[in-house]
Amino acid sequence: MDQIIIHVDMDAFFAAVEIRDDPALRGKPLIIGSLPGERGVVATCSYEARKYGVHSAMNIKEAYRLCPGGIYMHPNMEKYKAVSAQLHKIWHEYASELQAIAFDEAYLDVTERAGDFDAAREIGHEIKRRIRDELGLSCSVGVGYSKTAAKTASEEKKPDGFFVIASPEEFVDLIIDRDVRSLYTVGEKTAEKLYANGIRTVRDIRENKEYVIRLLGKQGQWIARLAFGIDDRKVTPYRPEDAKSIGREVTFQKDVDDYELLKDVLLLLALCVDHRAKRVGLHGKGVSLKLTYADMKQVSRSQAVLSTDFVIDNYRRAVEMLEQVDHRPVRLIGTGIYHLSGEEDRQLSLDDVFGDAALRKETELRELLDGLQERYGLDFAGHLEQIYQADTLHKTVEYMRKS
Fold it and tell me: Do 380 and 246 have their domain in common?
């Protein structure tokens, strides 16, 4: 049986949740992200704000320039996660396989449940109705014969839209004279390369298939297939254990030139990375460091290791790499681990077996945390779990910076 896939995309999710919970925000330009005067970007915004040209990932200063009368709010990630869990519960009732793209977006394989596109239409409408009735939110739903078709369909009538693309012929008829960027894997840089070579529409790709392949190689082959409506990718559930790397970073509200402070921040970031890795049963074979300087120049460093099982080791390696870079004012700092694999692959040392290494490293970590408490007045006793939450981490780092 051919695939039948539904793509669900919530409309302005973060903003919609806030408007649902505070009806006084309805009809107003609401921007969720950083506040004016802070560093950061727009996470999402209401459709009223989009009329001013504001969009996701826009620098918050540019958003404020375009929409000075907007309402600006920090995101409440714990609230959005809770609502996302409710969404996933609904979606799972209809999908044999579900691939979540974000809190608010997912592909659902409904091939077995639906059997044909008439039944799939009914499922799509039922999902929209339940999300509206049970959660008070709107979504756009696309039903397609492939992931690309379903994604294209969900975008076709946003917001609160519904559209079906049941065959490659329908897909091609819809997009053939649209810009190359209507193919979702064509980003800005790829589009510029195509434009420079006279390829502007999907029709141009079809009529110049071999040239596009020569121009873009493997990516060109994929784009050419999409231009003919060919996409046989399966809906593949995300598994944390499939992650290639785990990292955490923070952007400071003011540049930091105190490298001792940066080392202290690295400790908190290393704790967050370690917590996430252990939660999904992963360890790595490398540690990374990322910096963005005040002039926006980015620097990254990495170091291969035997194992990243001890947070104190990861922290020490990150500090070692930090000491080797140019000491200039820093805007952003991050650390992570990579070359991930399951714990069953880990090779234990004698120290590990008898617990000596773990005990020494745990003691060293406790001493470092005590040092943070002494320098900044932080109290981690019984509250360390809170630092893993993004909001708490950023507030803590800013408190440390101002101390």
Answer: yes
Tokens of 211: 């040239």
Residues comprising the chain, all counted: 403
Looking at the structure of the chain, the number of domains it has is 2
Note the pTM of the prediction, 2 decimals: 0.79
The beta strand positions in 110-263, using DSSP E, are: 139-144, 162-165, 245-256
Map tokens 């839209």 to a residue: 161
User: What is the phi/psi pair of residue 302, to 5°?
Assistant: -145, 155
In a shared domain, residues 221 and 259: no
**Active site members:** 105
Residue 200: which CATH number? Answer: 1.10.150.20
- Look up residue 266 and give its amino acid: L
Residue entry with tokens 């109290």? 379
CA 11 to chain centre: 17
Task: Specify whether the CB–CB gap between 138 and 119 falls below 8 A.
Answer: no
- Please state, in angstroms and rounded to a whole number, the distance separating the CA atoms of residues 308 and 368: 18
pLDDT (tens, 9 = 90+) of the chain, 403 residues, equals 589 999 999 999 999 999 999 999 999 999 999 999 898 889 999 999 999 999 998 999 999 999 999 999 999 988 999 999 999 999 999 999 999 988 899 999 999 999 999 999 999 999 999 999 999 999 999 999 999 999 999 999 999 999 999 999 999 999 999 999 999 889 889 999 999 999 999 999 999 999 999 999 999 999 999 999 999 999 999 776 667 889 999 999 999 999 999 999 999 999 999 988 888 788 788 999 999 999 999 999 999 988 777 899 999 999 999 999 999 999 999 999 998 877 544 444 444 444 566 677 888 888 888 888 889 888 766 567 788 888 888 889 999 999 8
Is position 114 within any domain?
Answer: no
